[in-house]
Amino acid sequence: MTDASPLADSMSWVQVLVLSVVQGLTEFLPVSSSGHLRIVSQAFWGHDAGASFTAVIQLGTEAAVLVFFAKDIWRIAVAWFAGLFNKDKRDYDYRMGWMVIAGTIPVALLGVLLKDLIRDNFRNLWITATVLVVFSLVFILAEHRGTKSRGYRDLTMKDALIMGAWQCLALIPGVSRSGGTISGGLFLNLEREVATRFSFLLAIPAVLASGLFSLPDAFHPEDGQAATGAQLAVGTGIAFVLGYISIAWLLKFVSNHSFAWFAAYRIPLGVLVAVLLATGMMSPAVG
C-alpha cells in the first residue's frame, strides 16, 4: 500500500484500465462499486480518482443494463407513451414506467442537494469501511425478515417509492446501489430476482443523468484527477462488457442463493480497510 501523495493532475492508462475493470465487475454486485473504486485508488495510487470519473465510467455499466434488458425497457417505454394518450392502454407496463420515474425522484433530489458532500465528505475511507461492515448486517436482516412471496406483478407505486428511498443510500460509497434497493425490496417481501430486476431498472435514469452531468467535470475536475476522452471511452467500454457479464451472473446467482453471501466478503474487506487506516498504511482523505 502506498502513503497518500499529492493529487496527480491526470490519470495513467494503467489506472484507468484497473479502475474500469473494478467498476465493471462490482457495479451490479451488492458490494459497492464506488467503494471499491475509492479503496483501490487510494491503496495503489495514494489518492482518489474522483467522483466525476466514477460517474462517467458508470455510463458503461448502465449501457450494459440497457442492452441486457432492452426488450423489457422497450415494452415499458412503448406502453408508457401509449398510455399517456390512451386511457384504455394503461396496463401494468404503463404503470411500471411511472414506478421507475417515481422511484428515481428521491435519489435525484438528494443527489443535487448533497452534491458537495457526495464529492468530498462521503468519500472518506473511514465511512466506506464502516458502511461495508454495517450495511452487510442489513443484507442479513433483509434476507431473514423478507418472505420473498411477492412476484413482479405484485410491485406497486408504494414499493417503487420505498425502494427509491433505499437507493439514496448508494450516495455513500460502501453501501451499494443494488444492495440498497434490493434490501429494500426484500423487506417488502419481494422475491430476490424481482427485487434485483427492479433495482436495475430503477438505477437507469439516476446513473445516466449522473454520468452525463459529470462528463465535463471528468476532463477538468474540481476534485480527483482528469481523464482524456480516449481514457474515458476505453474505460466505459470495459465497464460495459464486464457489467453485462456481471448482470447475467447475478441474476442466475440470486435465483438459488442468499444475498447474505455477499456479507461474507464485505465484512472482511471493511475490517481490512479499517486496519490499514488505523495503522497509517492508507489515508482516509480524498486528497
Topology:
Elements: H1 13-26, H2 33-45, H3 51-68, H4 70-85, H5 92-113, H6 115-119, H7 125-145, H8 157-167, H9 177-187, H10 192-219, H11 229-254, H12 260-278
Note down, in words, how this protein is organized.
This protein has 287 residues and is an all-alpha fold. It contains twelve helices and no strands. The protein is globular. Helix 7 (125-145) runs parallel beside helix 9 (177-187). The protein is 71% helix and 0% strand. The longest helix is centred in the C-terminal third of the chain and has 28 residues, at 192-219. It has one domain (13-278).
Q: Quick summary of this structure?
A:
By secondary structure, the chain is mainly alpha-helical. The protein has twelve helices and no strands.
> What would you report as the Rg, rounded to the nearest angstrom?
19 Å
The total of helices stands at 12
Q: Indicate the overall shape.
A: globular
Please give the number of β-strands.
0
Number of domains: 1
- Main sheet, how many strands, which sense, barrel? none
Order of helices and strands: HHHHHHHHHHHH
Low-confidence runs = 1-8
How would you classify the helix and strand content by structural class?
Answer: mainly alpha
The chain-level mean pLDDT equals: 88
How many angstroms does the end-to-end distance come to?
Answer: 16 Å
Oligomer: single chain
Helix content, binned percent? over 70%
Beta strand %: under 5%
